[in-house]
Amino acid sequence: MGSLSPWHLLILAMLVLLVFGGRGKLSGLMGDAAKGIRAFRDGLKGEEAPPAPAPAQPLTRPEAEKDTVAR
Questions:
Q1: pLDDT tens, 36-64?
Q2: Of 12-16, 22-26, 51-55, where does mean pLDDT reach its minimum?
Q3: Dihedral through CA 12, CA 14, CA 16, CA 17, nearest 10?
Q4: Buried b or exposed e, range 12-33, using 16+ CB within 10 angstroms
Q5: DSSP character for 22?
Q6: Angle 5-10-11 (CA atoms, 0-180°, nearest 5)?
Q7: What's the rounded Cα separation, in Å, for the pair 65 and 13?
Q8: Taking the model in full, what pTM does it have?
Q9: In which element (H, E) is residue 9 found?
Q10: How far apart are the first and last CA of the chain?
Q11: Which helix (H) or strand (E) holds 27?
């Protein structure tokens, strides 16, 4: 009861391979999460607020379209 049986060692070995294995699923997920966090941080400190657009100017109509007042 006090020592590890072969089954315990096999389960531990599988867990170690899953967590620390080359490009296993868990290591790939952690890498993707780290990239997402890094992109979020860069987005927060990266760019300043965009400059405010110029105020809108009234449109002018060409001479041909202007209303003529008959007097």
A1: 999 888 888 866 666 777 887 887 776 65
A2: 22-26
A3: 160
A4: eeeeeeeeeeeeeeeeeeeeee
A5: T
A6: 100
A7: 84
A8: 0.35
A9: helix 6-20
A10: 113
A11: helix 25-45
Task: State both tokens at 19.
Answer: 């967590």
Cα gap 33→27, rounded to integer Å: 10
Q: Could you identify the residue written with the tokens 């009861």?
A: 1
Q: Which of 38, 37, 15, 35 is nearest to 26 (CA)?
A: 15
The encoded tokens of residue 45 equal 């400190």
CA-based torsion, 22, 23, 29, 30: positive or negative: positive
